[in-house]
Design brief:
This protein is mainly α. It has one domain. It is built from 16 helices and no strands. Helix 1 runs antiparallel to helix 9 and helix 3 crosses helix 8.
């Protein structure tokens, strides 16, 4: 992809992602104003649990499969790999449903929560995989359209109905709107890949050998991803353990705002250049690899810096919109979480240098190290510093994660300067 094309795709992606993130933020803001902080905490914990469930369902098979797809030029070869993923995940959905039902029967989950986990878990995962696949095959705009429908469109619909007085905020109505949008996004994503010939009938036969081999390789990715999610999400559970549900609600609001920094960079920079870096490595295009790494580095650093500095001056205005006095006292936590979002973004730089060359074990070690550091810091800091401690634990955890990967990248026999992509 030429730079001009990448920038154009990035611009459209930014608009779609901005609309998505703004909708999510406004929904959380509206719900936070209308409901108690405890209710917002319930929402935050459910979202965190669902994120972990979706990761386990996917088994991180897409990381192996999409890299294989990037190395194929024929549509039929790509379709074969797509069908492998379909067969695997139909099976994983069945296992997930059985496990959740068993948890409900045994009393570990209420039937209400179990139902939402199944309904949303399948739709969220399928939509997520379709979005990733579209990006991998060079259709980042299509991938972001699917993402927007799943994560943003329903929010705008909810806000419109609320504005007309036709909607009363409660957790079940929010989740219903979310589920409907997720399944619509799956339909759109399937339509797109079918149009591209990636669901060809002749490629439907499951490649059991390929799937098993892919799962063996993906095991490392799965451990790495679960550990990565622990760094992202464990703080909510520790906050509930050491503080209370209302504190989780405050933290959910602060995190949803600072997450704008990570999501904007992921869509406008990382999702555009990341797959192209992998493709360049697979095709042996060293010059393109070095060039794309420079674009990735500069884009991540510049966009992150601009967003962090800009948002650091917006706290009082944002907190005032929520109308909760408890939030106004947490400016320090907000600023620390902005640094945490910056650490998340910067960790992508050594990550793609390792991932593009199949160095999954190094990524896994870094993820596990970061998760352990994060968990220990949460236990130590939250009882003493409250939400600020949770933010500091996030910064330290992701800094450790990035540091271990950077050391691994320097020790690896790469054809580029891993420190600067030159």
């Amino acid at each position: 992809m030429k730079l001009a094309e990448a920038l154009r795709a990035g611009g459209v992606s930014v608009v779609l992602k901005a609309a998505t993130v703004l909708a999510k933020f406004l929904v959380i803001l509206y719900v936070g104003r209308m409901l108690t902080l405890d209710a917002l905490g319930d929402y935050g914990l459910l979202v965190a649990s669902l994120a972990l469930l979706v990761q386990v369902i996917g088994l991180d098979f897409y990381l192996v499969n999409n890299r294989g797809i990037l190395g194929k030029s024929e549509t039929m070869d790509r379709a074969t790999l797509v069908w492998d993923q379909v067969h695997l995940h139909v099976f994983s959905y069945g296992v997930m449903i059985a496990a959740v039902v068993l948890a409900a029967v045994s009393g570990l989950l209420t039937w209400r929560i179990a139902g939402w986990l199944i309904l949303l878990g399948i739709a969220e995962h399928a939509s997520q995989e379709l979005s990733r696949l579209l990006v991998a095959v060079g259709r980042p705009i299509g991938g972001n359209v699917v993402l927007f429908v799943r994560m943003g469109a329903w929010g705008w619909a909810v806000l419109a109905f609320a504005g007309l007085g036709a909607w009363r905020p409660d957790l079940d109505s929010i989740l219903t709107a979310w589920a409907i949008a997720s399944y619509v996004s799956v339909f759109i994503g399937v339509s797109m890949i079918r149009k591209d010939g990636l669901l060809g009938r002749s490629a439907r036969e499951p490649g059991r050998t390929r799937i098993v081999a892919g799962l063996k390789q993906a095991r490392v990715f799965l451990v790495a991803t679960v550990a990565f999610q622990v760094m992202h999400l464990s703080d909510r559970y520790f906050i509930e353990l050491f503080l209370d549900r209302a504190a989780v609600g405050v933290y959910t609001f602060l995190y949803s705002v600072t997450a704008l920094v990570s999501t904007a960079v992921a869509t406008s920079v990382i999702m555009i250049f990341g797959p192209r870096i992998v493709e360049a490595v697979l095709l042996g295009q060293d010059a393109d690899e070095r060039r794309l790494l420079r674009y990735l580095d500069r884009g991540v650093v510049v966009v992150t810096a601009v967003l962090v500095v800009s948002m650091s001056f917006m706290f009082e205005w944002l907190a005032g919109l929520l109308g909760k006095a408890e939030v106004l006292t947490e400016m320090a936590a907000f600023l620390v979480l902005l640094l945490g979002a910056a650490a998340v973004n910067l960790s992508a730089l050594p990550y793609y240098r390792l991932y593009a060359r199949g160095m999954e074990k190094q990524i896994m070690r870094a993820s596990v190290a970061g998760a352990l550091v994060n968990a220990v810091m949460n236990v130590i800091l939250i009882p003493k510093l409250g939400l600020v401690g949770a933010g500091v634990a996030t910064v330290i955890g992701f800094a450790s994660y990035a540091g271990v990967m950077l050391v691994s990248a320097h020790m690896a026999p790469l054809s580029v300067d891993v420190a600067g992509g030159r």
